[in-house]
Amino acid sequence: MLRVVNKLEPIDAGSMSLFGKRDRDYSVQQWRALIGLVFQKPVMLEGTVLDNVSAGPRLHHRPFKEEECLQLMHEVGLSEELLHKDAKTLSGGEQQRVSLIRALALKPKLLLLDEVTAALDDHHKRVVEACVKKRNRDDGLAVLWVTHDMEQMRRLAERVWFVSRKRLLQYDTQEALFHDDKTREVQAFLRYQTNAGGRR
Fold this sequence. Notes:
Blueprint: H1 2-5, E1 17-18, E2 21-22, H2 28-33, E3 35-38, H3 49-53, H4 55-59, H5 66-75, H6 92-104, E4 110-114, H7 122-139, E5 142-146, H8 150-156, E6 159-164, E7 167-173, H9 174-179, H10 184-199
């Protein structure tokens, strides 16, 4: 779904709108300039962390300063000593956070996140969550976050899409998801997550 929203794959049916405009009213470059996308498995470009983070602004001919990169690194708990380090030599968790700030460097209006904290320990998971929440609160950044982590969903979500086998089973507020009538698949998943949480 995230690949379709970012126009990496064609849409099978229907249409998309972004901020009141149909997708056909944007060029692909204009559309993608409004959207940041971070995959579960980070992909590092050739070069340093600074090269990676500044890649988006360079592509779209936007100014970007080293100080901006350092600020973003600080927000996600990355040491400034990594600024000029080869990005491909970083740990998986570090690369995941570089991928996130590379997307944020574009100052997107919509941020698409696919299990973006999967490789992180609890501390850095909360750091990343705080960074994204701050952008949402202060800058009005819209976020579509794919996660299987129910506790993370409880901490962050305003509205929830419950998707199984490429089907949307429920779209509701977080409160309604847990308390209102639901499909058997949703009930089973929530029951499993509750039991799994109790065993940890």
